[in-house]
Amino acid sequence: MLSSKPKPKPKPPATTTTAFSLQTQAPVNPAESHRPVKQGWMLKKAGRGVFAQWKLKYMILATPASFTASLSPVLLVYDQCDQSKPPKYEINLSEADIDVPGMSANGSGSSTAAARALKANVACAAGAAGFGKKGFCPFVVYARQRKFHFAAQTKSDSDDWFAVLEPFMKSKLTPGKDPKLSPAKNATQNQGPAPGNIVRSKSRNTMHSTQMEAGRYLRDEDAISVVSSEGSLYMDSGEDGRSSTSSSFETLSFCSEPVLTPHELLHIGNMIVPSMSRDDINRRRKAPMHMQLERTNSTYQLSQQAEKWNERYQRILSLRPANPDAALQKDLQLLEIIGAFEEAAVQHAMKMVDEHHLQGPRQAGTENTTSLSETHSAPGAMFVDGMILHFACDYDVAQSEDVESAISRTSSELRSIDVFNRAAHDAGVTMNTALMALIDYKGFRVVAYADMGIDERTTPLYDLRSHPLKCDEQISAKLALVGKEINLKMHGVQIGGDRRVNVPLNASIQVYNDPELKRNYAVNLFELLPMDYHPQTTSSAASSPSRGPSNHSMQPTPFTAANSAALASSSSGISNAPSKSRRLRPEFLKIYSAALGSDAFTSSSGCGRKERELNDTEVSRASRYLEETWIPQVVKQLDELEVRPLEGTLIAAEMHRLGVNVRYLGAVAKESRIPYIRDMVCIEMAARAFKNLFHARLRGLMVHFRSVGATQVEEETKKFTASMFSTMLGNTDSSLKFFDEKLKPEIQFKFEYEMEEKLFTHLHKPALFSAMQFHCGVKFEESTDYNFNAHAPCPRSRLVSFIPKRKHITGLAHLLKCSISGAGQNSKGANMPTITQNDDERLAYSLTRHFRSLGPKSKLQRSDASSTALANAAAHYNATSRYEEAKRYALASLNAAENKSTGSSAVVARAQVIEAMGNMVNSPADMNQLLQVYRMGVTAVKWTWGLDHPMGMSLHDRVSAAYLRLKLYEEALEFHTKSLEIALGELGRGHGVTAGYLAKAGILHLLLNQTDNAIKSLTSALQIYTTLSSPASFIAQVHAHLADAFDARGDSDTAIAHAQRSRKIWEKIRGQMDPRSVASNMQTANLLLKPYTDYKGVLTPAIRTAYREAITCFEKVFRYLKNSASSSGGGGSSASGSSGPVRSSGSSVYSSSRLSTVSSMDSFTSSRHTEATSTGSSAFGCVTTAPMVGPAVVPPFAPLPPLHKSLLHKLTKRIVTLKLALVESPRHKEVVRTLRQGAGSNTDENGECDESDTSLSSSVIPLKFRGSEFLVAKTFDPVIAREVVIKMAAVSPSIYLDGVLARIDDEDASALDELAIAIQLAESETVGLAA
Fold it and tell me: Considering the entire predicted model, what is its pTM?
């Protein structure tokens, strides 16, 4: 949104009571400060290319109500006529310009061919949108970096708008401006001041401003905009006292639309969305629990809402993007309809569950069907607003195992739809699937999907079980392409008793054709993914407390000999059988080397015994690889903090991303060696097991209410919920009994992990309480005064509400990963269009995906996912040194957190606030506000996880970095020591992260001249890195720091040894021309020469060796500088030797906080830390992944100050001087001595040339060599001197001098002149040149 110029900031009040205050004023409301001049409906273009749409907007031109210098006329654009809501766009006309295509320079309005074509295109697009096709007059408004396409519906209307807009424009109407040209070129073309110049944000970093100077509107249609330059953004002081204001602020935009406008960024988390009233819910056709959907006949007409959901979704899904931008647009449009559909479905599902007890008893004999092609007759099915909703099963008569099977089946269907859509997109196959969402509320699962009309107007094209002879070959070929993308193989199946066919996917899939809309619908995908099973897997528990005795009929029948043997060894005959609810993850299939068959371990698998056994063996082998090889690798990534889930509730997302099912949490707990990871996993297992028990009992309670005809059940339900939470979290005998009899067996059954009572009692109860609320969909009051030692720690009075848990389709989420890597092909070589984006574009796309998927009403509601997404944006801005933007996104992230005082998302947001503020502090007095935010974060960490949790390290590290930036090294070391103690306690002394903290501690000790402590810490870090076989770059850098430390102590030999070791490692892994190798060569050379700085005696062999090694190092630096295309392309330390404890001349290692604390995104976004990419801790693409969790210190890479070209001259002098000192031949020594004496004989006492001496001896140097006498000039022709310099640069000073001395031996007189010039270059500031 483009807003008016902000008003001057008022004087701050005398006193402030907030904990963290940045004085602000209330934002100006244009509706109150302006008066309307003209208003009406206009068409506005949204999107670009094939996705461009013209939509009606209500536009108001408003001028200031009173004369105020700070107010300007504005153009307000609303989605609706209702002006009570904030405008969608606010365009400041004082900084805007208008272009009317086709208007001549004199304003006569004569149309060109291009203008007529544009009008025709507008009319065509508007006509397709239902607005008619005549009279449209387009014009373009340029404001800051945005371009707005408008079109009036009639010629008279457009003339009226032009007349009222022209007086307020920054310049006159701009005829014929070419929008493809930059503003500067347009200014030249129009021979006037550049209209519509981009006004850059004053808060922007200078470097970034230079990078972003190019105009954004480079095409005729709306281009992909990364940054929207917005007006004032005001942050009201809230619970944390946060408030801020800025004169200009940039928000991320995608496709010329801001992801979040400043108004939305301000109010996110505070926007109260009105709840749906009963009148707003559309009338149902029958009672919700008894309705059987009725269809009239084949002429059944879809309702308007059906068109809204299914038709729009299928139309977008059927699009075949022609380019990468179109693919991204398709993904965003899918997410928009998915989010809106889910939001509407949640409202209906909540009412279904809340009114469940009001319905009459279920009629006996009702069957439970959950197939998408059969749900019209499912129990409790209802049709409303073009969507069908039904319970996952008949909860009144279903047993616990039936409920579990139905939940697993619906989850598998949703997951398979997601996989199928992505694979079809990558394979270029047009195949439609259902728009589906799952809602879990009060223990019930409601399945919602858009009505596809499969019953009445569709015909089956592919149905092996019902019509095996009518399977369309073209459909089978398309399914084969989809299966190839998923890594599924073509396999044989048995149909009936005698028919055998080859299928590309699972045998149960069905494809229906809609002849009216020419679409093919793929349904019944829940068995798409292979089962996860191998016969050696045994389950120690045959039943679960939440489901009672096992029902054998729910298990598939195994057919291989291996399975038969496994069954024979089982007492029950079923505990070791494959389960349809246990399936491999699609992410695992993508990384697994072999293609698998979907129907392994089923009755229809294989056309014969050999093929059946082969299919089963392949899947069994994959399952074994998952358990025995892949999961240990995932655990290793967790232990090494390469994967950092924020808390237990998000570890499932990380495991799914890596292809591991949540049921393997027990294996993770067994494998992990890090205490806090084991505790986090145990908390997650306990919370998930409690969810099963709680939901089972809650469903039973609701069914009981229904059977007795109860009407007021909400209070009883909440009392029961509070009681069960207290039983789980209390410190009583009943709590221990509940654990032993219910929770422990449930954990054993679900996760195959035996949790001891001692371990359970030592789990951090606030963290467990938070996880239980998350999984159970229950919300208690946010507070830190819960007493978990009390009999009832969770009283009913503190229970707020029940929260629906939702799952939906994720669109084309894999495009985000492609845009991050920039790779155009996936691992299977699919022909996917190449997507290349910069970091800002990727972040804008990621944020847009997230907020589009939420739905219009849920967009600004509190959500930890939204908080994490905004924190990612803040981390990106921190990484790119745009701290004003980082702070504002971090504050928005804090506002969006569900628990602003104790939640983990709030802690991450505060860490980003601290980092942004820490990079803007200029004095110790500025640290007060930062420390207040820090203390709030520490309080949250202490309550939720405990003070020793690694999450606190992200807070300590950023405060330490802020003090380091101010060069307050003692305070920096104090906060860093807190993190180091946590690392030693929670991660252990042998952990790689601990080594990083020890290394930084050594650097801080070095800055405080505490040499012994520095050496001790750095030596410990080096030992850890060596033991762990860490990347060689880490070891090389610690050697470099140790060299500085020993040099500060005065131990030159040890310092040189470490420097040389560092140099050899860098050259081995990166080559001699890498900036790190160059810096190491400079350090080594300076240390080699430092003991002989003022030495005037005879050169001993040791000194000569040091000189030769120093020359070698200097010449490598010389070659790097000579070959470097840019003087700022990287480099090492200053050429001058540093006597202090720090590498680089006078500046400290980690001289800014960006060098000591980095987010997990830095390896992608910060060009100054490309060395850190090998840590593997980066996860840009997933907005649900926190930007930084736990340790924030990367391996201790020293900064690389730029090497200027002026250093070439200094290096030349040093190399020549050292080379001449190493001359061994007596004749050469005599020549050098004579030339030196002669060069200095014609200078005065100040070393300057004495021009009064005109004798012959003043212009030449007599020199005898091998019986011959030579006269060497004291002053030289500039051409000759220039040639000498060029020759030195062409090879190197050392090699050049060797050649000169060889030519002197050959009695080459010109060589003497060149040697004299070289001596003057090395030993004087200037070379004597002839006039």
Answer: 0.74
